[in-house]
Amino acid sequence: MSKKDMLKLAKELNRFIDASPTASHCVSETEKKLLENGFKRLYEKDVWKLKNGDKFFVIRHESALIAGIYGKKNLKEFGFRIIGSHTDSPSFKLKPKAAFIKDGYIQLSTEVYGGPLYASWLDRELSLAGNVVVKKGKSYEIKLIDLEKPVLIIPQLAIHYNRDVNEAFKLNPQENLVPIMGLSEKTVNDDYIKDIIAEKLKIKASEIINYDLELYAVQKGNICGFENDFIMNRGLDDKSMVHASLQALLEVTPSDSTMIIALYDNEEVGSSTTNGGKSSFTCDVLERLTNFNREDCLRAIDRSYFISADGAHAIHPNYSLKFDKLNKVYLNKGPVIKINANTSYATTTESSAVFEMICTAKKIPYQKFVNRSDVRGGGTIGSMIANNLGIRTVDIGNAMLAMHSVRETAGVKDHYWMKEAMKGFLEY
Questions:
Q1: Is residue 70 one of the residues assigned to a domain?
Q2: Which residues, given as ranges, of the chain have pLDDT below 70?
C-alpha cells in the first residue's frame, strides 16, 4: 500500500460524502456504485430467486440498504459475514410549518435531529436536502432534492453583545439556532418553501404532497495537514464506514460464505424505525436468503459474524484528561476495537479475537478503545443487532476528532486500513 493509494481512496470518500447530504442521498449513491458493478436490485414485494455467486441489494424506505454476494457453499454450513453501519448524521430538520418573518429576515424553524455540536453550525454556508413526496396520478413517488447551493446561515451574536461568549455560552435550539434564508418586508408561509422545491425539481408546487428537508453544510470535503494526514468533511460519522464497507464489498473475491453490508438509517436517534438497526430489516433479509427455513437460518447465524462499524474517539491533545490514560487511540494508527464492560458495545473476547486475527494476517495495525470509567460513551447498532440475531458481533471504527461536528476529522491512512480490514473480514 502506498500513500498515493491511501490519498486516492480518501478523495473518493470525500466525493461520496459530498454527494450524500442526507441518508437517502447516501443510499442513492451506494445504489449507483452497486449497479455499476453488476449488482441487481431486489424488491421486498417480489419473490427472490438467488443462486451461488449472485450479487444483489435491497433498499427499504429510501434510506436503508442491504447488499451482498451470495456464497459459493451452503448457508447453514458457512453462514454470513455482515458489516453494518449507518447512513444518517446529526442535523436540523425543517418543522412542518417552518417559514416565517422576524425583523425583516426570512427564517426557517427547525427541529434538532440527533446530537449535533451546536456551535459548529454557526456562521456556515448551509443548504437544504431531503425527500419530496410528489403526486403521480392516483398514487405518489418520492424524489430526492438537494438545493446544492448556500441558502441559509445561522449567524452568531457579535461579541459586543455577549462579552462572555468565549468563556461559556449555551445555545438554545429553539431561539439561537434558527437559520436565516433571506430578507423580506412581506409575510411568508410554507408556500415559499414549496415554490423553491418546485423550481428545483421542475414541477408544479401543487404536485407536492409532503417533504422532509434537513440542513447541511455545503463546504466540500478536503484533505488537509502539512503531510496530507487528515480527511475533513461533514458526516464522516458514519458515512466513512458506509464507504469503506461498500468499497470492500466491491473488491472482494467471492467466498464460501455469503458476504453482506447493511446500511441503516436513524442510528443517531435510537434506531427504532422501520429501516433502523432495531428493525426487522436484517432478519427479514437473512430469512429470505435461507428460503424462509427458520432452522437453516438459525444454523447459518451460528456460523456467522457481524461488524458494527461506527466512529471512535481519537485522543484530543487539548482535552486529554477526558480520555482513559492507558487506552488512548490515535489518528492513522489503524482501526479501533471498541470495548465496554456494560455492553454499550457488543465486542466480546471471541469477536475481538477474530477481528484481531484478520488484521494481523493482513499486516493492518489496530487499536483498542475504552472510555474513562467516569465517562459515559455513545452507543452503536452493535448491541441491538447482537441481541436481536444472537450473532457474534464486534464494534469497531476509525479514530476521529470533533465527532458530531458539522466538520469532522479522520485519518487518511485509517480509511484505507479499514477498507482492507473489512475486505479481509468479508472473505474470512
A1: yes
A2: 1
Give the integer Cα–Cα distance in Å for 147 and 130. Answer: 9
**Residues 6 or more apart whose Cβ sits within 8 Å of residue 62:** 24, 27, 131, 142
Cβ atoms within 10 Å, residue 347:
26
Q: What is the DSSP letter of 15?
A: H
Report the C-alpha gap between 241 and 418 in whole angstroms.
Answer: 8
- Write the DSSP string, 45-77: TSPP---TT-EEEEEETTTEEEEEE--SS-HHH
- DSSP 3-state assignment of 25? helix
What digits encode the pLDDT tens for the residues 106-164? 999 999 999 999 999 999 999 999 999 999 999 999 999 999 999 999 999 999 998 88
| Among 237, 302, 397, residue whose Cα is nearest residue 77 | 302
Write the pLDDT tens digit of every residue in 240-270: 999 999 999 999 998 999 999 999 999 999 9
DSSP conformation letters of 175-191: TT-PPEEEE-SS---TH
Q: How far apart are CA 42 and CA 31, in angstroms?
A: 12
pLDDT in tens, 288-300: 999 999 999 999 9
In total, how many domains does the chain have? 2
For residue 151, the enclosing domain spans: 91-217
Which CATH number fits the domain that encloses residue 388?
3.40.630.10
